[in-house]
Amino acid sequence: MTLAVARRVGKSVTLAADWRLRPPKGFEHRVPRDQDGALKVVILHPHLAVAYAGGHISALDALRAFADLGPLQDVDDIVPDMVEHLQDVSGRATDDRADFLLGLAGESPRIARIRDGEVLWPTDGAQIGDSEAVEAFLAAEHVDPVRDRLFGEGFEPEARDELKARYAKTVVSRIIETGVGGPTIGGPVVEASIRDGRFRYGGVIGKMSTQPQIIVGDPEKVPEAERKNAEMRRIDGGSVDWEICAPKQAGVGALGLYFTQPRLGIFAYPMRHDELVTYSKVQRQEFATRVAAEYQIELDVLGADRSDSVD
Asked: CB–CB of 117/14 below 8 Å?
């Protein structure tokens, strides 16, 4: 399952979701066995982003019907058709059904929740996914005094609203660290937020726990896969450095993920590929250069490359 949340504060909207993926039975062939992650927050247009939970393949198939929106197109013209289309997917009585959160930018930013075939337009927030994780998120968000203290005096109102909306990502990360939701929720947390009137992904550097999301090798070859995972777990006392590499351009529905120790770059482009595109034994800048050459998308590489001397 998944934990995906949407928050609106003033004119700021943030969608955030975890990375981990477990394909439903019967759809395993659509997700290569050496990957168990997915970009679950998809920017479709500078003014439109969607997060999903549930059936990965069904969600992507549904969103691809709206994958070719031009940057000058008014998203308000297509939202009614999109909501109806996603409502059908959400209302299915099958294992591959999916729920959705919509984030809309523009003069009046808003969010929508499409869950169990029903549509809700809440004023400030919504969440979908694992019920235990959702409950834990709401409890943590409502009792956490840090947000208001950090984003109080000293910020312009619009900047404060953006920081408050984006704080939802921090709470999701905390929920993942507690292990709520079990093994189907985890990995880096991805966010898409309105900045300067357009949706962008947030770049971040972090560490991943001793359960690597990327298994290097064929899981059928258990000793090899376990050996690789053991190597990754030993690094830095049980964590793996990773970096989310967001596109430099707003409104682009693709994202890079770079793992420092194994020098592994992963590129998620869900409107074009079911699977993640992997680049083995690459340095950060080489990863970004290859993605730019192959997909004409420039990734913002945040961290200084500490893997230059690694053979």
From this structure: no
- Cα 95 from chain centroid? 22
Distant-in-sequence, close-in-space partners of 103: CB < 8 Å, separation ≥ 6: 6, 8, 13, 14, 15, 48, 49, 50, 51, 109, 111, 192, 194, 199
Question: What is the DSSP track for 110-139?
Answer: EEEEEETTEEE--SSEEEEE-HHHHHHHHH
Q: Considering only CA atoms, which of 222, 215, 136, 226 is closest in space to residue 182? A: 136
Question: 66: which DSSP letter?
Answer: G
Task: Assign domain 3-295 to a CATH class.
Answer: alpha beta
Residue with tokens 């064929």: 218
Task: Please tell me the distance from the alpha carbon of residue 201 to that of residue 166, in angstroms, as a whole number.
Answer: 11
Query: Looking at the DSSP assignment, which residues form a beta bridge with residue 45?
Result: 48
pLDDT in tens, the chain (311 residues): 789 999 998 889 999 999 876 544 554 444 444 456 889 999 999 999 999 999 888 999 999 999 887 777 788 889 999 999 999 999 988 888 999 999 999 888 999 999 999 999 998 999 999 888 888 888 887 766 555 555 555 567 677 777 778 888 888 888 877 777 666 677 788 999 998 899 999 877 665 543 444 444 444 544 554 455 444 444 334 455 778 999 999 999 999 988 887 788 999 999 998 888 989 899 999 999 999 999 999 999 875 444 443 33
Listed in sequence order, the residues at least 6 apart from 93 whose beta carbon sits closer than 8 Å to its beta carbon are none
In degrees, rounded to 5, the angle at the alpha carbon of residue 90 between the alpha carbons of residues 84 and 96 is: 135
pTM, full prediction = 0.80
Alpha helices per DSSP H over the chain: 56-63, 79-90, 131-143, 146-150, 157-178, 222-234, 284-295
**DSSP secondary structure code for residue 26 in this structure:** T
Cα angle vertex 42, ends 48, 168, to 5°?
85
Residue found under tokens 């934990």 = 3
